[in-house]
Amino acid sequence: MRKRAAYAVLTAVAALAGFAVPGAYADETVGDIQVTSVAVNGGKSIVVDTADKTITVSVTATDPSGIWDADFYLWRGPDGSDPYYSPDGYILPNEDTTPADCVASSSTTSTCSKTFTFEPDWWLTNADAGTWKAGVQVWANDDSWTERWAYTTTRLQRHSKLTANASPEPIAKGRTLTITGKLTRANWDTLDYRGYANQPVKLQFRKAGTTTYTPIKTVYTSSTGNLTTTVPASEDGYWRWDFAGTSTTPAVKATGDFVDVQ
Question: Global pTM?
Fold first, then answer.
């Protein structure tokens, strides 16, 4: 891996000298090589709970001489400020530093991929949730190469949970039904789940025998993530909470709780 090793040394030297690597180099291409797509985690947000999460980053590129190798880095923050460096000079602690797995679809085009592991019990903190950038380097067999520091972006999110409970059950028609619940999300600092405060969550109802939930009202979570509201009982059906999500936390729907109205 002569080309990658040379670049890794240059990157490491720049980091040791106090330069923020993504800001120190501009995108550059030498030769006819072209990147056609980059995918992080299959195009989905990276949702991590309290256990390790391994995802795949891939690049598809083309060159008349064929693709030789590729490498990737994930980083966050403004360009040039405090990116995360892995031991080989790139961006993620515990990155898979083995050569990329490249599969040719023709004599000129290949898709190369590598894995990255997010570890809440080692380096990941709550402050890391949000938008991350994906950089890529690709080399061709004729020594053509290309470098893109922020080809695409992805979201790193804290896994969320949502519960719902309607009571009393059964209930007489016209009486007051109380629906409670709790919205929590992974806390990477404490390796457990904590309530998500002051978040708008929709209360929804699905009439028995139907398949569609209808929004009833919006309730905000308490300082501990709790939800509570009351509604008049009118007919048999399922009650649930629906959270739309934020940039740091994915959307989640509670399992519907059936209420028998008599």
Answer: 0.84
Instruction: Tell me the three state secondary structure of residue 127.
Output: helix
Q: Is the peptide bond before 232 cis (omega within 30 degrees of 0)?
A: no
Q: Give the C-alpha separation, 180 to 129, whole Å.
A: 28
What are the φ and ψ backbone dihedral angles of 12, each rounded to 5 degrees? -65, -40
State whether residue 205 is helix, strand or coil. strand
Of 55, 93, 58, nearest in space to 72 by CA: 58
| List of E strands, the chain | 28-30, 34-40, 46-48, 53-62, 67-75, 101-104, 109-118, 130-140, 145-158, 160-167, 176-187, 192-195, 200-207, 214-220, 226-232, 237-243, 252-253, 257-259
Q: What spatial distance separates the first Cα and last Cα of the chain, rounded to whole Å?
A: 73
Please write the tens of the pLDDT for every residue from 103-134: 999 999 999 999 888 999 988 899 999 999 88
* CA dihedral sign of residues 73, 78, 79, 80: negative
Instruction: Report the relative pairing of strands 46-48 and 145-158 from DSSP bridges.
Output: parallel
Q: What is the pLDDT of residues 36-75, one digit of tens each?
A: 999 999 999 999 999 999 999 999 999 999 999 999 888 8
